[in-house]
Predict the structure.
Amino acid sequence: MAIGKIREGLYGVIAEFHDPQTLLDAANHVREQGYTSIDAFSPFPIHGLAEAVGFHKSRLSLIVLTMGILGGLGGFFMCWYANVIAYPLNIGGKPFNSWPAWIPITFECVILLAAFGAVFGMLALNGLPMPYHPVFNVRRFDSASRDKFFLVIQARDPKFKLDEARRLLESLGPREVTDVPW
Amino acid sequence: MATTKDTTPVHELRPVTQETRIPERFIPTPTIEPGHSFSTITDHISTIVLRKKTPLGWFFGFLIALGGVTVLTTTISVLIGKGVGIWGINHPSGWGMDIINFVWWIGIGHAGTLISAILLLLRQEWRTSINRFAEAMTLFAVASAGLYPALHTGRPWYDFWMFPYPNTMSLWPQFRSPLMWDVFAVSTYATVSALFWYVGLIPDLATLRDRATNLWVKRAYGMFALGWRGSAKHWHRYEHAYLLLAGLSTPLVLSVHTIVSFDFAVAQLPGWHSTFFPPYFVAGAVFAGFAMVLTLAIPARKVFKLEDFITMRHLENMGKVMLATGLIVAYAYAMEWFYGLYSGNVFEIFMLKNRAFGPYKGMYIALWVCNGFAPQLMWFKRFRTSPFWLFVTAMFVNVGMWLERFVIIPASLHRDFLPSSWGMYHGTFWDWSMFVGSIGLFFALLFLFVRFLPMISIFEMRTLLPEAQAHAEGEEH
């Protein structure tokens, strides 16, 4: 299945589970054993699973807030610059700096940039697009997007020993435990 | 595994403490029929897309829609060649069917984001099976809508002048104009709706990538799936981003039709110049949007055998939303009379009389029948739970919302302050061909969508199953 080897050796050990509850319990158990480089895969979001694999805080809100503020300032500046500095038009004797008339455009710019922040920020933080990933080498990983649940312990984990990791995963009621090559 | 799975519907799993059973009418209709598992949901929805043989009916429908697209391209060619004079617009009616159709389409395009964003924030789980479809409908409706003002400018090849950029003419747009606000509102809405739709699609594209057997099909879906692998950390950020997008889209969707209504309300013309236009337009947009979702969903669930996922509960709820927004719209029609008469302004009062008894009185009466009276059927459960009657009501609303814009635009414009400048407005052949063409474009895009993309969000449907619930140890249910 591998398209091209990018690195030799082992990425980690992966276990397949039948249902979300077993996966969640397994992830919590593995983390409590002191493993830090773990990840879980599921066909839909599972509440508490990210925390179970040691994920804490996402910086996404900050990105979206920053982008929203930039959009607002930028949108207002655009209107002000165009209608006050670059091309002042006298409309019915109204003041050039007629800011209430620019609120709708400022608002739309806030939403537009904040939405860009949410989408592209999410993709960037997730490291997507990433066409190749070692877990795709696992034969049955196709079903991670259908009805099966996976838990991986990465080889780069300081506590990682192949036999121990395998034994630990096997004790958690998986369907199958396999090695993941790079 | 499927054999050992408990297939009792969710509503019957609830603990019954009293002796007598809960009466039937208090048990909610499920949002997904019992007997499904993660795999059956996935297979059922993805097979519609991945099957090798395209049903003949699809080609038939697509061809008709393509015929409409041909009418559209022909109209646009003639329009660019000869100018907007081929339309019925004139003095005093500078806005005609082009703007009617723009507002009609953009109104229809409100349901998608409303269903996806507002109902998500309100935790209305039933939205799940109709949101993808409604979002696609939104995009295509906005595409159809966008054609009209772009071509109405008369010289569409200069449309880029509406965007601010430093140029050799030293010209800048007039940002105090509601028409400029409209440019920003509609283009932002189109962009954000497309992003929202695409983000929702990513996990399902990954499912299609993994389920496809043909290498090139796999690669095509794989490319758009961006390498999605369902990692828990990714899901966490994904859900966060989706929620933020919903939060951003909610004020956006309300702002778009508000700004469209400013195109009218900021003008001095009787029939346009009123402060209640924004809420009136937004309610009308939701009304029109839900009617169009029903118009499309009722045949689609039948043809693609999706009755298990788009249940009677969805149809009934949409009927209820249609009734509620229909009442707001009817209230607005009534309030127009109050405002006009209470103002004591001779032009306002004349406008009302002209609407009800003038040359376009037929339109005004038909408007009340379609938007005021037809939705009242939805008070009755019998009609609300009958796909046939829902469809009939939705068709009335589709027509009614078009008439509403006709009554607002030419019927206000054609007789303004000076009787010497009065006139009449009639759509010409090219007005109608443009309208038919934009409907063709809408359906052609919709046909492509149902063939190549999953029309129901697969991953969100999975979360509706009771076995999707997992709880960490020590956590209360």
